[in-house]
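Pilot study result, target chain (106 residues):
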Amino acid sequence: MPSTILTQAQTLAASGHIGEAILLLEEAIERGKETAGIAKLLAKLSLQIDEVRAFQNWCHEALRMDSRDIEVYRMMEDYFRQNGRDFEADEVRQVAESLSPARESA
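Predicted structure:
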């Protein structure tokens, strides 16, 4: 079910209906269907509509559910870097690098 919701939300967002996509995902969460993927997509969509606080909250929720999801760390790093918050971007990048499988074999 959550993957169907993700697909529907992605389709809505791709066609410019970001608000509807967010509403669909939030309703899924209200029904107990919360996943790291849903939180991550909510973070991405929130940033697209300049809801920075929601972006940060959803990133943290996604990491709470899957603390090894490197993509979430990269999203946060990109946001921090684009907004001149290099120290925070560097911290997040270090965490992502420590989780990267390529790093373990080096």
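One observation from the pilot: Helices lie at 2-14, 18-30, 36-48, 52-65, 70-82, 86-99, 101-105. A full batch analysis is planned for the follow-on phase.
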